[in-house]
Design brief:
mainly beta, about 40% strand, Beta-galactosidase, Chain A, domain 5
Length: about 375
């Protein structure tokens, strides 16, 4: 099913090699405690380049040739480590131990109640005050036919209030068909919630090109999880049909955004993805009419948080001095539903000892003919 769908939309794009694929390490900066941060550059034969640092597992750049053959960096971020250390809204990071929100910063496992930092109003968000996005990971380039890097770290028992020692591995692979594959694995010695995601802000016209409101989104989801004003879900599902949340057919992101009742106005919703007969299912497609670049997202996860950079307000200076304003990037965060640990009817996020958490999400970029 996936191969047929992809074949139908990839016709007319470049496949001829432009230069050899490789993976190279370089120094990106130094932490306040003296730890050196490395950046790996993954490059394939079609001119696609992906850069990743071992601070937060952050994707700092994804360069894709546009319709004129110009290398276009399609993710928001910073030129150096200083920008990431100064504080930012999770640009490009691996988010965990639990992505999204945990209601009231508490959850119960068995007879024990666990208390987390409330770093998002009354709720805990994206792993707490110092989640996986603010940790230094071990990084290893994997010798393979495809450029690949493996990131690992051990989250100690009690980190940010979560139980159990958790060993985590995240692999980034850049394939010959311009796909960035993100594979996640985790094991634990105590039952604990796990919900990892990749938090890149995309702008397919270029990170410094302005808003993403004209970019066309297709999202294979018929339902979403309604939430309160703090974005905590009620536990129910609701149809997207007849609402501004319906992207089941290609629709400019900005077409109905002003109809969203939120402060600030914009999308920040968890979508219930359609089920399929395959582990890795194509769930989204985004196209920029300016650059011609298309991104196709596939995942094994049941949910997708779609966010339109509502809180970007011009106070962040990014790569090349770019100023990031509201709606200058969008996120498609493949994950389990928000607050699943407190919602018995949602797919479970509990990882038990002896079991392995696995998740795969991929981002394929089609390169238009110049």
């Amino acid at each position: 099913m996936r191969s047929i769908w992809l074949a139908s939309i990839l016709g007319g794009f470049l496949t001829a090699p432009l230069f050899a694929a490789d993976a190279k390490l370089s120094e990106f900066g130094v932490m306040p405690d003296g730890q050196k941060i490395q950046q790996v550059t993954l490059k394939n034969a079609n001119g696609v380049v992906v850069k990743i640092i071992n601070y937060g597992g952050i994707v700092t750049a994804i360069e894709v040739p546009d319709a004129k053959g110009k290398a276009t960096d399609v993710v928001l971020g910073f030129d150096d480590l200083k920008g990431y250390l100064a504080g930012h809204p999770y640009f490009g990071a691996i988010v965990g131990r639990v992505a999204n929100r945990v209601g009231n910063g508490t959850f119960k496992l068995g007879d024990q109640t666990y208390t987390l930092a409330k770093n998002n109003g009354p709720n805990s968000l994206h792993g707490g005050l110092k989640g996986f996005d603010k940790q230094v990971w071990d990084m290893k380039v994997i010798e393979n036919e495809q450029p690949k890097v493996s990131l690992t770290r051990t989250s100690p028992d009690g980190e940010e209030g979560y139980p159990g020692q958790v060993k985590v591995k995240v692999d980034y692979t850049l394939t010959a068909d311009n796909t960035l594959i993100v594979d996640y694995e985790a094991t634990t010695n105590k039952a604990t919630p796990i919900n990892l995601t990749q938090h890149s802000y995309f702008n397919l016209a270029g990170h410094d090109s302005g808003t993403i409101l004209d970019q066309e989104l297709t999202l294979m989801a018929d339902e979403y999880t309604p939430a309160d004003e703090t974005l905590l879900p009620s536990g129910k599902l609701a149809p997207v049909k007849g609402t501004p949340l319906d992207f089941t057919t290609a629709t400019p992101i900005g077409k109905r955004i002003k109809q969203i009742e939120a402060k600030p106005v914009g999308y920040d919703h968890n979508y219930v993805l359609r089920k399929g007969d395959m582990a890795l299912l194509v769930v989204a497609k985004v196209r920029s009419p300016k650059s011609g670049i298309v991104m196709i997202v596939a995942t094994t996860e049941p949910g997708m948080q779609f966010y339109t950079g509502n809180f970007l307000d011009g106070t962040i200076k990014g790569k090349g001095g770019a100023v990031y304003n509201q709606y200058d990037g969008f996120c498609l965060e493949a994950q389990h539903f928000p607050d699943s640990v407190n919602q018995p009817d949602f797919p479970s996020t509990i990882l038990a000892p002896g079991k392995t958490y696995r998740q795969t999400t991929s981002y394929q970029f089609t390169i238009p003919k110049p």
